[in-house]
């Protein structure tokens, strides 16, 4: 009698394969090894210790934890020519890139912050190229007339680059690579950032110091005359113009003995003229007020005297290149968004308050922009 073969088992469908139990036969060594590996889904990724801070920090998000400046380089917005293109590329990059949050130790956060501020290894011999690169990294340097060891704006450069030509900052200004404006305080910053600050210039009539803006509110014709004088002469100081008594008497226009009046939101009160008479701060005659207002409003700009550090007010075209003047003006939110990206790049690790304060953006305005 011929033995019959047992009937063949029905083919297993994918659904049944997913629910059936594991085979009882011993698995191969390769399969056992693969099961022994930890699952990537159950173990949070931590690449901080094995990745240099500059690369790792691109995954840090604000406001949940911290934010690093490499996200600026990821979008490429800071390198674009026109502000509107930079704003569009910034939004596109933010929408297309999703980075997981990262946890940083205090040591790692310090390393990122120091690297972002350029406080790492110094070049053997700093040149003008290194000074220019410093502004690419930290965006601005506050300037001040304080001169104990040297002018205060020279100290941050020395701390980061070591010995360098002391004429480096004036040289970059003369080459129309840097300009002065109220960015953080009175600051030097790359001319390419000027379009991003036009929203602040447009607010001069309502946000500038009261001691400054009152002249434009009460005598706009005189302010126009002062601007015409700057255009005609090419460079003037407040002492060069005919003095006339301040509108409303001496000191602050509200009748007090001097002072800053109401400051614009986001501007440090310490930067305002102190409440006293005499000296540079207390001598707010109308010509000086008009020049200060025009500077704040972006209708003129300024350079500095190499000997006295006094402001020389000049027409825009004397400092800003033609391509910067012709650049389109971004919307205020687009401009502030990009300034916050520059802040992130310069700070490395920051809170929302830190990011906003770098360019003196009001925190209620900055918070939703950071969240985006």
Could you characterize what this model shows?
It is a single chain. The chain has 372 residues and is mainly alpha-helical. It folds into two domains: 188 residues, no CATH class; 125 residues, no CATH class. The chain starts with 13 loop residues before the first helix and ends with a helix.
Order of helices and strands: HHHHHHHEHHEEHHHHHHEEHHHH
Sheet-strand content, in percent, reads 5-15%
| Largest sheet report | 3 strands, antiparallel
Which strand order spans the largest sheet, edge to edge or round the barrel?
1-3-2
Quaternary status: single chain
Given the helix and strand composition, which structural class is it? Answer: mainly alpha
List segments where confidence is low: pLDDT < 50 over at least 5 consecutive residues.
1-6, 8-81, 87-96, 248-281
Mean pLDDT: 74
Number of domains: 2
Number of DSSP strand runs: 5
Task: Compose a concise summary of this entry.
This protein is mainly α.
Question: Characteristics of this structure?
Answer:
single chain, 372 residues, mainly alpha, 3-stranded antiparallel beta sheet, two-stranded antiparallel sheet, 19 helices, 5 strands, 5% strand, disordered N terminus
Topology record:
Elements lengths: L13 H6 L9 H8 L16 H4 L13 H6 L7 H14 L9 H11 L11 H11 L2 E2 L11 H8 L6 H7 L3 E5 L3 E5 L7 H5 L1 H4 L2 H9 L1 H14 L45 H4 L3 H11 L4 E4 L6 E4 L7 H4 L6 H16 L4 H7 L4 H9 L1
Antiparallel strand pairs: 1-3, 2-3, 4-5
Helix pairs in contact: 5-17, 12-13, 12-15, 13-15, 17-18, 18-19
